[in-house]
Write the structure tokens for this entry.
Amino acid sequence: MKDIGFMKKIGIALLGLGVVGGGTYEILNDMRETIKKNEGLDIEVKRILERNIDRCKQLGVDLSKITQNIDDIVNDDEIQIVAEFFGGVEPAKSFLLKALKKGKSVVTANKEMFSKCWHELETAAKESGAGLYFEASCVGGVPVIRTLTDSMQANRITSLKGIVNGTTNYILSKMSDEGADYETCLKEAQKLGYAEANPTADVEGFDATYKNSILSSLAYRKRVPVEKVYREGISNVSVEDIAIGKELGYEIKLLAISKLTDEGKIEARVHPAFLPKNHPLSSVKGSFNALYIHGDSVDDVMLYGRGAGALPTGSAIVSDVVFAASKDVHRRYDFECEEVDEGAFATDFKSQYYVRLAVRDSEGTLAKIAAAFAKNGISIRSVLQKEGKNGEVYVVFVTYETKESNVRKTLSQIENFDGVDKVVSLLRVEE
């Protein structure tokens, strides 16, 4: 417990009072006395930038604290910290740059803006001496950023693998557990508030890509731009493939993956993938998130918890607020910011692969397919034949680890074979 003989007064402004902003406001009020007692910090919400007055009334906000002008915040000397909840790049970036240039520390949950504009924000913070904190940007209430920066300094991190989007995990969990199709599960997620009316950012993997960029940058101390993260979403994942995967001993997840290759390059990707049922990430269901980290000293570490929501994300925001308020000197992460070394990133990643082909039951077809895999240096781990609807025949191959380019080349050849109707699906398999 801190010596509270001296109480440090901290003024904070909130930019936005939506789901997460509202949750943060509630936590700051509820925990104010506790934070005073435990940390010696009296944190008061001085200003809130918000257009929706009804929302402010709903949360019991003193309306005299409401403004719609960012200058009222950045020019207020009683405000030391600005917390942002807008989402999107603008006006969030411009507002936060204004705050940082005035020497105010910034706390944000905005993964898109932060992953794309990190360098600009960090430069402004460095020049003014302000702090820049972003724990809530990646896995909601799960303390992944602080773990990477403050708890694993004795490790060379070699890989990250995680479920970092609650919307897609809910949809895939429901498809797997109930056998419902993608569209049905998406509608259910929207009804429950897990998915937006326009779910593209989540279901097409953009949200997870922003988070992977941030996490990988911190893990390897090298900026990993969003455009260097390979991306696929879940909209093409079928109930049939999930069922076959379960028969083979796998669960399906949208994974954010990054690793250091044997050549020392960074490989970063987001896509649906099969995991063995006994993998710790396979048991992460519903809207929960988890991050699986491998360090050379600690071996494997997994962090698990609520990845979204007003209070879990608000918890991470308030943690950063307390952290920022207690620091006189703030940490910098300005590693390799200005230029990206193109040679630092892998352009052809490796994985195991699940391939489902629609074929006609004709003599020699399977042998030709197997020969094509072998010719391109791909070893087959298992083969399964399944009967589909209307007399369709499917052949499922699971390969050993190989390069993506080898698989793409092989499938382009196979789909032209007599007896092969089409390549139905291609999914990665991770161990």
